[in-house]
Specification:
mainly alpha, Serine Threonine Protein Phosphatase 5, Tetratricopeptide repeat
Amino acid sequence: MIRAAVAALLAAAAVCFLLLAHDVRATRSGLRAGDRAYAAAPSGASWTSGTVLGGAARSLLSAGDDIAFRRALKQYVEASKLHLRLDNAVDVVGARGRAQDVLARAARSGDPRRASQASTLLGILVFRSAAAGSGQSQVDAAIADFTDAVRLDPGNADAAFDLELLLRATGARGSRPQTGQGGGFGRTGRRGAGGGQPGSGY
């Protein structure tokens, strides 16, 4: 009786192992397929995979954050393609808002380089809103995002360039914000001034 129970348990464990191995391969394949689709046409990328055990393989591979960041990049690309007109204002604002939400979550990632890249893209989106007439508060938010990006990853040359350019532009207009306003934290909860490509090392 005991031997039969042990044998059944071992058989069940073997089946679970085989299913998990299948899901790991499927998850990796889904990531590669999504990256290829993103390179060809970002809107067609999904990074989904047919798994049997749900999210077990994703957790084992620690792929959840990777997929979330890839989807954030996709949202950014889709929002950045939209040009504001009188007849599409609601759609554009909604798309930018959704992209900003997912990028803000990505900017709280534990990976400094990934969080820095997300903060940079977030600052770009926010500044575009400011350029469209959203006001000085959006400029201040963009500066905070670029500052966060540089502090998270001092090697992020794009963020450093964008920050310097924006500070020079706002300083020339006499509207440069005072460093440390609002407690000195950016929107992501990291210290700031007043507030990619999937699979390539973010």
